[in-house]
């Protein structure tokens, strides 16, 4: 067993470790360094058996990868890559258990949970209750278990807790918070794409009543953020329901500047390429008008901070 000491910034990491059984009364423990701090290198360490499992962006893995290294030789030159993702995917978190590593990731802007068998290297994916949702790790303090807990929410579902048996591949609902007098079956969440000015496909998540005639009479609310790598998530928002009931369409615009499609999506909407965030939003609204979801006189937006800047700039550029 080891205790790790982590020192992290937004652009670098440095991790030291020592034996958890060290008797402090005998003196200061010997702190061993995993890898010296290097600008641009991030890494996060978990211990398992004779290895450390490390989530890192080393060697150009902007969307992160999972590597393994022996406890006795921990330097970066010994890191063995065991899991990578595509350019449009990203790893957000990893949980290590006795038999499995659980990888929380995004694929094409949607959450996925992968279970990696640490003994056989077999990987399988958890089938989530609904495709368009948000996922985050739950409290998983028990190392000697084959059950991982995570929290889940969707545009029409309160945050709920699920347990998944990785060995039996069985998903079990533990805590669900139903909404009184609300039937989620009356609503739909689906995805379309707009083509931006440079030809890039911009994902749009749409929420509305299933029975709503999709025509130019519908008022449209556009939500987006598009900055700092923060994703616009299809999460539960209580304030959506009064307007959905009244026949609105809600569009979540996943413009560049967020990281829904990996960190290259973030890079394409920041600094000298920041204009892409604004033109993406313009393309989203134009597409929804052209596709018959709404009319220019019925478009509204909501945004604060960077989201407000995005909305304001886009509508100045394209009144």
From TrEMBL:
Pfam families: Peptidase_S9, Peptidase_S9_N. GO terms for biological process: proteolysis. Its EC number is 3.4.21.-. Keywords: Hydrolase, Protease, Serine protease. One of its GO terms (molecular function) is serine-type endopeptidase activity. SUPFAM superfamilies: alpha/beta-Hydrolases, Peptidase/esterase 'gauge' domain. Residues 236-318 form the Peptidase S9 prolyl oligopeptidase catalytic domain. Residues 1-171 form the Peptidase S9A N-terminal domain. Serine peptidase whose precise substrate specificity remains unclear. Does not cleave peptides after a arginine or lysine residue. Regulates trans-Golgi network morphology and sorting by regulating the membrane binding of the AP-1 complex. May play a role in the regulation of synaptic vesicle exocytosis. Belongs to the peptidase S9A family. PANTHER family: PROLYL ENDOPEPTIDASE-LIKE (PTHR11757:SF19), PROTEASE FAMILY S9A OLIGOPEPTIDASE (PTHR11757). This is Prolyl endopeptidase. The lineage of its organism: Eukaryota, Fungi, Fungi incertae sedis, Mucoromycota, Glomeromycotina.
């Amino acid at each position: 067993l080891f205790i790790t000491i982590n020192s992290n910034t937004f652009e670098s990491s440095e991790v030291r470790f020592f034996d958890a059984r060290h008797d402090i009364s005998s003196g200061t423990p010997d702190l061993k360094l995993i890898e010296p701090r290097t600008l641009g290198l991030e890494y996060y360490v978990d211990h398992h058996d004779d290895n450390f499992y490390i989530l890192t962006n080393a060697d150009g893995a902007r969307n992160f990868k999972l590597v393994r290294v022996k406890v006795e030789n921990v330097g970066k030159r010994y890191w063995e890559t065991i899991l990578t993702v595509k350019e449009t995917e990203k790893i957000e978190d990893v949980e290590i258990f006795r038999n499995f590593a659980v990888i929380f990731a995004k694929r094409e802007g949607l959450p996925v949970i992968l279970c990696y068998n640490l003994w056989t290297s077999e990987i399988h994916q958890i089938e989530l209750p609904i495709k368009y949702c948000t996922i985050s790790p739950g409290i998983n303090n028990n190392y000697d278990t084959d059950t991982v807990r995570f929290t889940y929410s969707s545009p029409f579902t309160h945050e709920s807790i699920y347990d998944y048996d990785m060995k039996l591949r069985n998903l079990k609902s533990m805590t669900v918070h139903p909404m009184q007098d609300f039937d989620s079956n009356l609503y739909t969440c689906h995805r379309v794409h707009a083509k931006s000015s440079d030809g890039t496909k911009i994902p749009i998540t749409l929420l509305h009543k299933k029975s709503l005639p999709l025509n130019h009479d519908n008022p449209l609310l556009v939500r987006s953020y598009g900055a700092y790598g923060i994703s616009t998530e299809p999460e539960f928002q209580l304030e959506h329901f009064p307007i959905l009931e009244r026949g609105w369409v809600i569009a979540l615009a996943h413009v560049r500047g967020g990281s829904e499609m990996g960190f290259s999506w973030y890079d394409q909407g920041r600094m000298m390429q920041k204009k892409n965030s604004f033109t993406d939003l313009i393309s989203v609204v134009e597409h929804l008008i052209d596709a018959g979801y709404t009319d220019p006189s019925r478009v509204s937006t909501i945004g604060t901070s960077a989201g407000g800047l995005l909305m304001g700039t886009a509508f100045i550029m394209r009144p």
